Automatic annotation (TrEMBL):
Keywords: ATP-binding, Nucleotide-binding, Transport. PROSITE patterns: ABC_TRANSPORTER_1, ABC_TRANSPORTER_2. The keyword Transport applies. It comes from Mameliella alba. It comes from the Bacteria. This is Spermidine/putrescine ABC transporter ATPase subunit. InterPro entries: AAA+_ATPase, ABC_SmlMolc_Importer, ABC_transporter-like_ATP-bd, ABC_transporter-like_CS, P-loop_NTPase. GO terms for molecular function: ATP binding; ATP hydrolysis activity.
């Protein structure tokens, strides 16, 4: 059964259509990797899933219901650039994410605050940041910062995790550690994940499916002119498809 259903979705800014004819359905717990050239509307698509913006045409249903008009607690999002507050300690950063999620920290009772702090502490232990709880972001490595950002996104127990080039800035070793971390989290929570990446190996390693965003019609004079869509939907778990073939095809798309 499909969990996320995207039907005939298009998004335009003014007269310019960025993406169109997006028709996909995603089962609960699936991991979707998204690849494609810059400017093809990948981040725009995530913003639609996040309900930060509304589609110009079409509909998105999540768990059978039309999407809420406003970003809700069902989604967590992580960007490549760290979304942590530099002036707060690691644990305060996490507590702030929980507080933001519950709308207004000031309204929470003292008992509730203590409870949230305990919860934050447990999450930090879980993601391997317990020992730096009292330190500031400037003291953390890139991998640790990105763990913290993921922990913030997970503060509201999202059913869908949206990752916009989350590991792009990390060195290869840290990347691999983060892949394991993400895979564990996913096994534990059964979350549905959408991840944009420029790293094709990463896309196939982590994803159940790999979507390529591209413009079916290219205008050499005006590369911004035509809309993009999902031109390939690969089953990344199908060993029958030679990886090399996929790589060649998607490389063509990425090279643009
Ligand atoms: N709020 C906006 N208003 C106008 N144009 C936008 C807006 N957001 C994105 N765009 C344009 O939409 C296109 C796709 O952007 P984006 O979704 O960020 O692509 P990608 O993530 O694939 O690189 C870009 O050309 C960008 O300039
Ligand atoms: Mg983008």
């Amino acid at each position: 059964m499909s969990y996320v259903e995207v039907k005939g979705v298009a998004k335009a800014y003014g007269k310019r259509t960025i993406i169109e004819n997006i028709n996909v359905s995603v089962a609960k717990g699936q991991f979707i990797s998204i690849v494609g050239a810059s400017g093809c509307g990948k981040s725009t698509f995530l913003r639609l899933l996040l309900a930060q913006e509304l589609p110009t045409h079409g509909e998105i249903h999540i768990d059978g219901a039309p999407m809420a008009q406003e970003p809700g607690r069902d989604h967590g999002i992580v960007f490549q650039r760290y979304s942590v507050f530099p002036h707060m300690t690691v644990i305060d950063n996490l507590v702030a994410a929980i507080a933001f999620d519950t709308n207004f920290w000031g309204r929470l009772s003292r008992a509730r605050r203590t409870e949230e702090r305990t919860k934050a502490r447990k999450t930090l232990d879980r993601i391997g940041l317990g020992h730096v709880a009292g330190q500031y972001p400037a003291d953390l490595s890139g991998g640790m910062l990105q763990r913290l950002a993921i922990a913030q996104a997970l503060a509201s127990d999202p059913k869908i995790l949206l990752l916009d080039e989350p590991f792009g800035a990390l060195d290869p070793g840290t990347k691999i550690v983060m892949h394991d971390f993400l895979q564990e989290l996913r096994d534990e929570t059964g979350m549905t994940v959408f991840m944009i990446t420029h790293d094709l190996e990463e896309a196939f390693k982590l994803g159940d499916r790999v979507w390529a965003f591209d413009k079916p019609v290219w205008d050499e004079e005006d590369p911004e002119k035509n809309a993009a869509t999902i031109t390939y939907d690969f089953d990344a778990r199908d060993d029958g498809i030679p990886f090399q073939t996929l790589r060649e095809r998607t490389n063509v798309l990425q090279a643009r």
